[in-house]
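Look over both lines:
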Amino acid sequence: MDKKSIIGIVVVAVLFLGFAYLNTKEQEKYQQEMAAWQAYQDSLAAAQPVVEPDSVAFAPADSVAVAARREQQVAAMGAELVAAREAAAEEFTVENDVLSLRFSTRGGQIVGATLKEYDRYAPRGEEQHPVEMMDPATARFGMTFYVKNGLNNVDVNTLDYVFEAAPVETAADGSRIVVMRLPVSGDACLEYRYTIHNTAAPERDYLVDFDVRLVNMAREMANQTQIGIEWSNTSYQNEKGFKNENMYTTVAYRFPGERAIEELGMSEESKSKQITSSLDWVAFKQQFFSSVFIAPQHNISYADLGFTTARPGSGYVKDFTARMTVPYDAATQGYDFAFYFGPNKYSILKKVSLAEDDLRMERLIPLGWGIFGWVNRWFVIPVFDFLRNYIPSFGIVILILAVLIRLIISPMTYKSYVSMAKMRLIKPQVDELAKKYPKQEDAMKRQQATMELYKKAGINPMGGCIPLLIQMPILIAVFRFFPASIELRDQSFLWADDLSSYDSVLNLPFSIPFYGDHISLFALLMAASMFFYSYYNYQQTASTQQQVPGMKFMMVYMMPVLLLLWFNSYASGLCYYYLLSNLLTIGQTLVIRRMVDDSKIQAIMQANAARKSKGKKSKFQQRYEELMRQQEAMQRAKGNTPKKR
């Protein structure tokens, strides 16, 4: 490298360092100005009382920078929006008989909802507090849109601005009206109008009308096709068991015109989903309470929904988030939204409607799909509601419900026992057929002869399964109903202080995997009754038919243990119902056994056999026998086929 090249490199390096030094100084000066401006904005965002000018420790240069920065903000956003950003926020409360709402002028939003008629769980003897739907420190509801300012578009998020609140009005019907406005430019403003009803009708009193009006905003709005909505909050733990409450806490939503609803499902961590089609409403659903944003006339066009599960013992359950959009065009004057802050109570949610639209919000209660949901809606809930109107103890109501269900299926239970008795009496003849056809290739003949024997005796081989099939929808229906029934919440019976949660007679100093850190007595008694019922039932069926190897261990021993592990942290009301059902079934079976005379059944079977032996075979029986002969012939042909070597 020659001398000129070296000199050139040195000159370039010196120039580069000089420019870097000057740029660093400019950056430091800019950062100082931005830090001063950010400190000023943070003081406004915290909604603290205005600090006196003589207490501000700004250097003259910083004061000039802040003033210059504010002028830039005014030029970019307009004086009204800058003033709304700098204003001090206020909070106030509006109530009706069942609901207390906490409003903040920052964002013009609801930051708290308290349900007066419901208390958070507390052990006996401890002070109870009303249920709060959200932590006010985390509540956020903001709308985002663009307004024009000269050639620029200004991104407005209402959460950054303080609304002007008008005095709360009281309408002629007793409803309270809260109006808050965000001035945008001149006489153009964004207006929020909340209506809190007080009609002594829960389906209206838990429903808060939320009307958004774009007052003279058409000329101010930039060219856009949608307005964004950001809604989020954190739910408190309101129930006894975190695990059980978390199981039912999620984000739910409904597509327009659909009978069913959709959910994100359960997760002990985080879950999210993007919805690109229209929605009627979005719900932050807890086990017994829900916060619902409703937009039936101006459907939500897009939604990014999610939640994050809180740590057990933190006092919270989930952090909910919903980022949504609603359609907008130049002709849009406003939106008619609503909020629901209330219980997941079937009789209330079924009647909630807006603008004559059936919202089907009762689907927030997980009653089950198909036949299980029908059993709950058309039988369990009506009977339960009828009984609780006359009987104050929910333990007695559950007892009567269990007795009623057993009475309904008692005819099938009787037929089942008679069928099992017939199977028991005819078993020696079935064993003789097994000896007559011992070979595997004669299995078709043995089966055909056995079915013929059953037919002559008037035995239905499936008769013992019919009662089980009948009561399975009921068992599954109540399995879904009891943990989701808010009527059982905070209701005590015997040693259980809350029938909607587990009962604990002993808290363990450690946690057993798959079991928990407590002993539920109702779950223990339910498992014990299941063992005795399974053992007795197995003894009856073992004498009537050949059992699959290992079936006794699975049904008699394994199943009660699995149920004990599963139900130890489940609703004590459900365990109590299953305990009653098992005891009533055992008692019913013992009574039927004393009523049924084996000698009379034997005589009836002989009479049936004599009568049917004289009759002609039905076409079905003839086809069945022909089919059995064909299958037997195929089996023999297959057995006589020489094997390839």
User: Anything to note?
Assistant: The two ends are 88 Å apart (CA to CA). The CA atoms of residues 20 and 72 lie 28 Å apart. Residues 3-45 form the longest helix (43 residues).
